[in-house]
Amino acid sequence: MARATRVFLLLLLVLLSSPSPSFSLYEDQVGLMDWHQQYIGKVKHAVFHTQKAGRKRVVVSTEENVIASLDLRRGDIFWRHVLGPNDAVDEIDIALGKYVITLSSEGSILRAWNLPDGQMVWESFLQGPKPSKSLLSVPANMKIDKDNVIFVFGKGCLHAVSSIDGEVLWKKDFADERFENFEILLGQLFLRLSCD
C-alpha cells in the first residue's frame, strides 16, 4: 500500500511539473478561429451610399489614414485600406454610385476605388507650386460610360481629372491668389477667389 501511494505521488508530481499543454492555430485558421479584430479609428470624413436594392454603406476616412466601407445595418467592415503615415485623407466622395474618390497628401494624390470590393481603379499624382487647402468636387450629374471630369484644387492649382483613367486633362495655376471654394452648377465651373 505504501509503495502504491509513493508511485501515485511520484506520477502526480511528474504530471504537475511537466509543461502545460499549449494550444495553437494552423496558418489557414488565422482570422477564422481566433480573436482577430479589425479597427479603423476615429472617423474624419463620412459619405453615405444607399441603393434601393442592395447594401446600405457608409464610406469613411479616419485620423489613422484608413479608408473603409462599413455596413450601416450591422457595422461590419466590407473592406478597408490603411494608407501610409504621411498619406492623410483630405476629402472623400462617391462617383457614379460605384467608385470612391479620395484626395490625400495635402491635395497631391487622387485615387478611385471600386466601391463593392475596395480595389484601386486608378491613381493620379497632382503637382503644384505651393502647399494650400485642398478641395474635391465630384459632379452629381455624372453619366455612366462617359468621360466625366473631377475637379481638384491642391498645391495652388486647379486640376481637371478624367473619371475613367485618372489622367490630368488640364491644370490652372492659382499660386498668387487666395482660392476659397468652387462649385459646379448646371455644368458650369464657378470659382470663388478672395482678395487680400
Automatic annotation (TrEMBL):
The source's superkingdom equals Eukaryota
Q: Which residues cross the membrane?
A: none
A Pfam family it matches: Beta-prop_EMC1_N
Query: Keywords assigned by UniProt?
Result: Signal
A single Gene Ontology CC term: EMC complex
SUPFAM superfamilies on file: Quinoprotein alcohol dehydrogenase-like
Gene Ontology terms: biological process? protein folding in endoplasmic reticulum
Which stretches make up the EMC1 first beta-propeller domain?
25-185
Annotated signal sequence range: 1-24
| PANTHER family, sorted | ER MEMBRANE PROTEIN COMPLEX SUBUNIT 1
Name the record gives this protein = EMC1 first beta-propeller domain-containing protein
At the highest ranks, the source species' classification is:
Eukaryota, Viridiplantae, Streptophyta, Embryophyta, Tracheophyta
